[in-house]
Fold these 2 entries.
Entry 1:
Amino acid sequence: MKKISYLELSSIFLTIIISFNTGINICILKQSVGVNSWIAILISYIIGIIPLLLTLYISNYHKELNLFEKNKHLFGDIFGTIINLFISIILLIIALTVLYNIISFITTQFLYRTPIIITSILLVTLSVYCSTKEINVISHISIILITINLIMFILSNLSLIGDIKLDNLLPILKININNLFISSIKISIINILPIISILIIPKDKITNQDKYNKSIIFSYIVGCLISLITIIGTIGTLGIYLTKAFEFSEYMVLKKIKLFGFLERIENIVSMSCITESYIYMTLLIYTISKNIPRKNDKTFKYTNIVIGLLLIIMSNYIFDNITVFNNYIEKNFIYIVSLLIIPYILITIKIYINNKRKIKQ
Amino acid sequence: MKIKKIILLFTIFILTGCYDNKELNDIAILTATEINKINNNFIINAQVVNPQAPDKSSNIEAPFIIYTGTGKTIQEAYRQIKLSSSRYLYPEHLQIVIINENIAKEDITQILDFYLRDPSIRTEFNVLIGKDENIISTTTPIDQISSSSILKTLETNNRFQGVTNLTTLNELTIMSLNPNTEIILPSIKIDNINDESDTTQNTDSTKVNSMYKLSGLAIFKNNKLLDYLTDNESISYNIIKNHISSSIITYECEKDKYLSAEIISSKSKITTKNQKINIDINIKATINESACNLNLNHNNNLKLLENNLSTYLKNNISKDINTIRNKYNSDVFGFLDEIYKHDYKTYLKVKDNWYNETYKTIPININTKINIISKGNIMEGNNEKN
């Protein structure tokens, strides 16, 4: 495996934590906390510091091993495989959710007469092809796309500043505080817990290992800012009533962009960033899941990825009948499924802690 | 490698825009729609730009075509047009939608629902209330497409007179969904409607026979049209809501002698404290015309004029607010929304009896400050003898 730079690592990490900004985040927040969504985002990132620190702690244990190898090393072959399988299943569900989220965005806004199977084949094929390469290829693609996305994000938000009315974010904290915390925890679970997949890259595969922690923390702060700006930009510009009215209000707000005073109707170009972020995230998830499956050679690795891809296409077409079913699934099932990632987090951390203590005693 | 190349070549042919492609030759660009309701049926007038470039010297073909459809729903009415139109109506470039007052008096939520649901429609088009039928059919001079002409007139009026404002579908939706405010929309009518209104003969002579005309803002309550504001009430509303760029204040400085001050910029702010509404209005103005015997080279005179104009404007705005409050009892100014956002405790107290008790009686303090920044190009006017 070739080494990747800390900047490339940052870009992959950033993709993981901001991929659900389109669709899912606002879908959860707008109904429960309304104008206080930005506070919920802020709290969610504060809560998310715990899994972030755990991730950094786990990454320091046997730096040459990836997540699945670490588990086997820590828990032995049988229990390690069970934990790995558990993580892989949850990551597969996350990949399915990422896929359907972006499919529903594309089919409701652009290709409303195109069957979703075609959209899903196009997206998954690209991700599967990319995931058959090594992590350095994925990270190269990631950094290129994230750079383009960040430039577009900054430019589009700068042009929206004039449209943002801070009055639309009032009144502050005039809601049930319990709702606010529950929503924050939900957002934290969806956005932050999947960062466990970053552990598929062993720490010693980073060129500047001393910058590993810094780059992850930096990406975390940038991700927090992007989520905050997205939610403030959306509710501040459209107002809470219009935000609630639209399925993808983050996209509707892009229709107001007037770049440099004359470039209008560029929402479709700007919204490409949502699609590319989902594509990188899905690629990383397929890559991570396939790494857990034992293989004889590179050819088997490719077939594994193709099978995962096919599974995603079939599931995305048959599990969710429409976007309403998907939204209900997010609220009622997805959050609880992803929250199960806490279990491996805790088990791995405790085991590493015990092992380290033992080492010190010896 | 060969298989890879064949697959790559094959993908070029399957990625040609999927099922949603629309050729330019198959679409008709929809620029305006007029919606009416008669006998519980929606009647849609859809204005489509005539793709055959009109020969300006002979004017054989009209620059736009009006298609009409009827249906129980707006969608059905639009689809009825398919019976007579050879092309698909492409709504991405929709500029204006005129809702007839017949529907506005009943309920406009079904119209909002239709336009918000359809992802192929941009929700940034302007909405007006039509006092007459067939407004978009009327041919117009200068700008040949009537929707463009109406849109430009709206923009020009808002920029220079301030009787109307530009309300997009998004803004209308916010007003409709927000329980703390009411809808207000610009309105339009036709002067001198006749048989030639929708023909090119209408614009043949130097004096256009039949012409659309913007009028005062339409005021709603509970998403139903109540009435129309007068021009002065509309200007006052636009000043309070910061929807104005420029307007004219005509002030009687002496008996039967008037002065015109042009508003260059206007900024207003509504604040609320202790169940009181404060409206601060800061205006920069220039003197454009004066028939008064007042020497404006004297600082004191200028200050006096500023004070008089401020008081005059304050009284006018106060009178207009009271008229709107007492006559219509509709909170188009969004006072309750201001209380909701900035004084939540008071909001909880007043929200249930807002229209029954509070709205009509809540004290409103208006502070106007007019700053005359120029008196025009002349040092001494014809009437400034003293």
Entry 2:
Amino acid sequence: MSEQTIGIPPRGNIVTPVTTPATALPDGERKGLTKKEIAADHPTWCPGCGDFAVLALYFKLIEKRKLWHEKITTVSGIGCSSRFPYFVQGHGAHYLHGRSLPFASGISLTRPDLHLFVFGGDGDAFSIGGNHVNHTARKNIKMTYVIMDNWVYGLTKKQTSPTSPLGFKSKTDIWGAVDQPINPMKQLISAGATFIARTTATNPNHLLQMMEAAMDHDGFSVIECLSECVEFYEGAFDASNPRKGGKFEPVPADHDVTDEVAAYKLANASFPGYFGIFYKNNRPTKNALEAKVNATMQEKVQGKKDWEILQASFSRLK
Amino acid sequence: MSESTISSAVANGNGGAPQVARVNEAVIRFAGNSQDGIQAIGGFLARLAGRSEQEVMTFMTIPATISGGPSIFQVRIGSGEILSAGDEADVLFAFYQHSYQDHINSVKKGGIVIIDSDHVTPNPDWEKDFRHVPIPISSRTIEAIGGTAKDKGKNLFVLGLVAKMFDLNVPKIEKLVSERFTGKDESIVKTALTAFHAGYGFSVGHLIQNFQFTEAKKKSGSQVVMNGNEALGYGLIAAGVRFGAAYPITPWSDVMELLRRELPKYGGTFVQCEDEIASVSMAIGASFAGRVAVTGSSGPGISLKTEAIGWAVMAEIPLVVVNVQRGGPSTGMPTSVEQSDLNQAVFGGHGDSPRVVLAPTNVKDCFYTAIEAVNIAKKYNVPVFILSDQAIATRIEAFEEPNLEKVCQDITPDLSPVQEYVPYSPSGVTNRVVAGTRILNGKYPIASGLEHDEMGHPGGSPKLHMQMTARRRMKLQRLAAELPTPQVYGPPEGNVLLVGWGSTLGPIREAVDRARAAGDSVSSLHIRHINPLPDGLENVFAGFNHVCVVEMNDEGLYGYGQLGGLLRARFCDPKIRGLTKTDGLTFRVREILERVKTNVATGLRKI
């Protein structure tokens, strides 16, 4: 302990209430960010990985919508796709496998001033973190969740994923996968997510369109984005890619996005299925409902300082 | 002080005409079933003691099943310092035959046993040792408040009896009873008071003598009365915590219920999550985004949270984790007390993951420990455990009301722009800059569970991992140097030093008092900071021949409990020995004294 250099530099103590923190933006003349300013580390993904497209379009979204560094928070779990935050210049966190949604919920519920994006893979969303998807959807906590689905475990080098189709040969199913795969759309619809879309990394315009719509949705917005793993599941999504002789079929124009049953029927189509917004409704967010609870409770203590509210509680404990 | 205990007063009395004896303190045990409202009697008495500037401590058992079952509540009230809930009762109220049979052994020889003669047949053998007072509690209650209330109201009738026996302040009790039922039907208050007065007016003059507490020392300021879980919850609020997340589990749930109810008044939120992992993650997310947040649980739930706590250590995110310990392992004994999660708190993570562990010693200390935990977490960007236990969680104490204006703090994050932010420089603790803060040089850090460089970006070089591991460790070493060395209770040199932590403070100190009164050289030391340990303990230990670590956990493979093991590892001192037990009950003073004697007699070092 000879080089005891631990010290704590002082900073000001500007007090802001937790429900509406002040922005740090006195400067109205700031320009939107350039791609160069948004990019951080060079991605570690394999050449040809679908995830590059998702990252590029996230940058595009930030540019287009003039989001500032400090206003975006990028969160991820564990997996190839979850390396995401390191490649983005902005506050972010690379959290635990499968737990990015509850972590992000903690941010969402305390910091309504931030644009919150969560990125992850199919393992995060539908295997280890499956139940968190259900409950974040049920509670409708405001954030955008992009699931980069590649139907395989890539980071750990080709094991079966919860979305791997039957018969897929992996290191954990050398004779071919035997477990029924999860249908992400059906799962999300029944969980009660309030914005559910499906897109693919090979259609950049559509991907950006979905990201924008998801960002503008007041609630838990989820996108399943097919994102090919060229290393361990090459060609998985060719059938959805016109350049590879496949078909990109948009959600029919007459589809009613508020119709849960219709959405479920769309989700039932066999691969490559449909792309676009499957379902959307405007159920109040937990953020809004909790704020309402707080407003009601705070009416009763109006004008009181925090210690005075506590004092009142203590007075009843005598 | 033989003239001031109840058994001596009973022995001296002639049993004839009513008389008043003055006593210092009384231990009263109520034994019945959980639906009898026994806890409520205890609650009224504790609150009354608080309002009368008397010391009070309670002890209760809660049945593990929902449908009820035997339940007890013990309250010790006195004019002097009360350290524990008392080894033996002066007075037992037995509602049923099983209450009578199961608890007669907890009464002092010569003590008073009041039985509900509607349900209990006295045992002639026991009548020799204890003063039996049969009172038709059930039928008298029904008589007073009507036939429909068969099982209700007995508790208030008994409260009336107690009030009469101990000459308690009736207007104060009436006020307490009215307050308790505020907002309910007017007739409920009336019925409750009728039952109380029926008990108060019941003529027992010829059966029991009356007692009066000696005047309590005037205390400055007023007292508040609450249990440990309430004190923890309010302490967190005072500390400025405005977000928490958890999953229900006994005996932690009360804390989350309180925070869920109270936080909205302060603009905060408490979330009931789908599971333990989600709750710790949500709390860490909220901490990451701003002020220190809290999660909590009891043993099994903490086990589930451990991976996430390791992440918070790695990413250096502040967090408060409350563990209201119960008997383990696994589901164990959900409603019993044990101190067996110390190792889990200190070591419960993969990799080298140093974290802070604090242990409050009583109800009052729960309030202040919560604040200390938040401040340590905030200053050192580290998870801080608060190890409470079932005994502190459920017992009610009166303590001097904190100066809330002074104690309450605002930990709202500072979001003003900074020029640069390097969160993990190898050389120091950093004042955290949270999401939403503009960093003018355009370089933003990532909070990461991977080993990382000074900006949080992944890096696994041997040198970096060594540096960063040392960084995380040195924060705690720095904290250790700041911690006060605990004060020895009793002389700082002598034969035996009892070392304890957490809720055993009361019985250990009382054991010291009793041993010293009997001429034995015994002192004690209570450790509140479990990890890191404060500096200077070796000097304290040097003053004693024997160091006995008293704790409610198993003696382990090598003969000492969990704190004992930690202290032996730290100080390599064979005179540190264990005094442990695993019966799921709080320590009795007598138990400690007897065990210390054996311990010393068989000790490695003789005096």
